[in-house]
C-alpha cells in the first residue's frame, strides 16, 4: 500500500484512526497500531510479512541472549547482523551479483526475485537495535510486540526515516494523548506531504520521462539533458521528502515524533552540508553503525580514506543494486574527501554563493549518475550534457514541454527552498498575538489543508497506482 | 576501536569527536544521545526565553510540559504493570531529568515562588517544600521578572483561553478534513462503479479473485487497490477537472509526450534503390524461433479456406501475440495493442500526432510490399500508405520544428517500391484539400471525407471512375471525442472542440458479413449509428465480406488494413462486385490461400505512416502465409 493512493486515504487511514480513537487505554491503542501496521504490511504479500516477523523475532531472541550472556554478545551481534544482511543481500543483491558475473562470463544469469517491501529499511532498523543492545545503550526489549511494532510500524516501514529504538520505545509508552491539537498538527503535515507527492512530484516525473526518458536517452538534445537532470533532481527531492513528511505527519497524529529526514538539501553550501540535509536518518545510520565502528577519523589518513570510501560505496549500493549507484556513492565520497582536504589547506569552506552554485552542479550531476543504470546510456547523457552527443541544442517538443509547465517548474524550485516555511512562520508570528489573529491563522490553515486535500484527491483519481521512487528498496 | 567507544565515560568528549568527524553531520541526531541532547536543548531554551523575553515561547513550553505531565501521570499508571524491569532504570533517569528542569518542582506542580514566611507556615504544617520553591533573596529581580514578563503567566485564565481556542479550532480543522475524506470514502461505497471506460477504450480492472497465491505474494492486494482506483465512480470527471487545473501550469502550445522519440534523417529519394524482398518467415529464417516455425508450417499444412473454424481463430488470437513477439522485431512494438500515439501536439483546438521518421521501419515496409507483389504475380498489388494529420494539416515549417516534414517520407517510401507494386500516393490529393474537414481534431484518424480523397486517388491509379461524393446518403453524429482526448488526459482545449462524424453510406448495400474474433459470422451494417469511429464497418475485426448485389462482373478486392482503412472501405463497395476487408492484426494468416480460393484480383495494402513499424510490416507479410 502506498500513502498516495485513494485506498489508503479513504479506507485505511479513517479506519485506523477510528479504531485507534475507540481503544480505551494506551496499551490497547498500541495493539491497534500493531494490528493495522501488520495489515498494511500484509498488503505487500503475506509471505513478506512472515519474513519481516521472522527477522524481527530473530533480532528479539538475539537481543535477549545478548542480555543474558554478555560474555558471548559479540557472537550474537555478528550472527544477527549477518542474518539480517544476508536476508537483505539475497532479496536485493542476488541479481546484482549474478548480473555482474554473467556480464563477465557473457551469459545472462539473472533470476526473477521480488523485493520484500521495506526490507532495506527494517533490516537497518533491526541492525541498529542489535548494535545499541550490544553497546548497552539500551536494554534488550522483553516484549516482542514492541520490537515488532518498531520494525513494521506502517509510517516508517516503506520508506520512512530509519528510526532508533530508544526514542521509539519511550514514545510507545509515554506520549501525547490522542487529542485534536495533535491530530491537527499531524494532519497538516500529512496534507503538505501528500500535496508534494501527488501534485508536484508525480507531475514532475511525467515531465522528466517526456524530456529525458531512461531508454532512448542517447538522442536527447543538450537542453533536454540539462532540463531533464534538473527536473529529475526536483522530482527526487519532492518525492522522497514528501514521503518523510507524510510519515512524520502520520506519526504526529498518534503522538510519535519521528526524526526529520530532510532539511532543504538543495540550499546546501557544500557537499558535506548537503548530506547533513539529505536523508538524514540514513547518513546518521551509516555514521553511527559503520563509520564509527570502522574507526571513523581517528585513524591514519590512508585508513580514513578507505573508511570514507567504504561508507559511501555502501550508501550508494543501498540505494540500488546496480553499479551506477556504487559510482554515485563513490562520487560523493571523493567530493567529501576533497572538501575536507580543501578546508584543512585553505582553512575555510567556499564562500556562500559560490558554494551554493558549486553544490547545485554537484548534486544535479550526481542525480544523472543515479538515474541511468545502463552505462552506455549514461555515457551518452553525460556527453549530451556537455554538447558532445551529436544532438542539437534544443528541440521543439522539449521546449514546448518546459513552456507548458513554466509556472509549475518555478513553483517546484521554490518548494525546494525554505521560502514557504519562512513566510508561514512570519505570518504566524504576526497573527498569533491576538485572538482574532489566531482565528485568522487557524482559518487559513484549515482552508489551505482543505484545498490541498481536494486537489490531491482529484490528482489521485487519475493514477492507477504510482509507487514511490524508493519503493524498490 | 569498538572497545575505545565502550570505555568512553564522558558523553561530551565522544560527542565532540563525532562532531569533528565532519563526515556527514554536525548535528547529532542519533538516538543514542537523544536524552542528553534533549535535556541540554531544553536548558538552552529556558535560558533563551529568559534572556530574549519571548512570551509565546515560554508559554508554549510550559503548556506542553503541563500536558506531558498529565500524560506521564496517566500513562504511568497503565504502563507500570507492563513495563519490564530493565527499563525501570531508564524511566527513573527520565523522571530525574524531569526534576532537573526548572519549570517543574519535584512535586510536579508548576513552580510557584512562595514568600519565605508562607513557606515556613506550610512547612510547619508538615508539608515538605524544597528550598528552590521559596523566593530566594539572592535573586530578587529575576524571578519576579520571569513572572511579570509573560502576562499570561500572571493571568492563568488567558493561557487557558489560548489553549481552549487552539483546541476548538483543532476540532474544527480535523472535522473539515475528516468530512472531505469521508466524502471520498462514501462515494466509493455508495455510487455505482463503472466496468468499462469509453474514453480509454478499455475495460476497467475487475475485482480480483481471492487466491492463496495472490494473498501470499501480494498480487491480490495490489489488484484490489488497482480495482479501487480504476473503477472509482466519478473518476472521469475528476480526471477532467485535474486536466483543467494542469492547463494553467504554463504557457504555449500544448504538447503531450507519452513516448519520446527522435526522427531519422530522410534520405534523398532520387538516390535510393528499390528495397530488397524479404525472406518468408515460415522458412527457416534466423529471426523466428523454432516454435513459431513449427506452428506456422503446421497451420499452412492445414490450409483452411477462407473463414477458419472458431477453435483455430481463438487459438490464433491468443497465440498471435506470442507469434509476433517470437518474430523478434527489433523495435519492440506490440502488434496486438490498440494503436497508441507517442507525442501529441495541440494547437488551435486540434490535436496532431507528431510523426518521427524511422528509416529501418519504412525500409522494412517497402521490402514487405515488394515481397507481397513478387509472390502474387496474378494480382494487382496496390500499396497505399496513408499520412496522418501531422503531415497534411500542419505547415511544413511546424513539421520541421517538431520532427521532420512528412511529404518527403512518402516520396522516399515510394521510390523504394518495385515496379510490380502499384503506387497509390494519396498525400498530394489530401494536401490539396487540407482546408476541408479531412482529419478529426480530437482523434488520430482521418474523416470519411479524407478517406474519400484517398479513394479518388486510388481510382485514378486503377483507372476507374470514383463514385461522386454527392451520390451518397450521409449519416451525421456529433460530440465525438477521440483518442487524442484520452491520451492528453482530457485536454480542455480538445474537450471544447468535439468532432462531428459524417459517414457516407454505400449505395448498393449497407450490409456485410462480419467474421468476429470468436469465429462467428454475423450480418452487420457497413455504416452503423453511433458517435465513435466504430460507425465505420464496426471497427477492427478479423474479416468482413461485402457482396454488391448491383454488380456481378466478378471484380473483387481485398483490403488489408489498419484502422484507417475502416473509413476507406465503404467507398470500395460500389466499385467492386466483392469486397473483402481484413485487419492485419486480427485476420486469419492465410491470406495468400484466401486470395487464390476466392479469385481475388486486387490487393490493397493500407497502413498509416504512424504505425509503419518493423514489427507491423513483418506481421503483414506473415499474414499472407506464403510458402517458399
Structural write-up:
The complex is a heterodimer of chains A (about 475) and B (about 625). Chain A is an all-alpha fold and about 475 residues long. Helix content of chain A is about 75%, strand content about 0%. Residues about 465-473 of chain A have low confidence and may be disordered. With about 625 residues, chain B is α/β, with parallel strands linked by helices. Helix content of chain B is about 45%, strand content about 10%. Chain B contains 25 helices and 15 strands. In chain B, the strands form 4 sheets. An 8-stranded mixed β-sheet of chain B has the order 7-6-15-13-14-12-10-11. A 3-stranded antiparallel β-sheet of chain B has the order 3-4-5. Chain B has a two-stranded antiparallel sheet with strand order 1-2. In chain B, helix 20 crosses helix 23. Residues about 1-10, about 25-30, about 75-85, about 140-155 and about 285-340 of chain B have low confidence and may be disordered. Classes of the chains: A mainly alpha (about 475), B alpha/beta (about 625). The interface between A and B is large, with 119 and 102 residues.
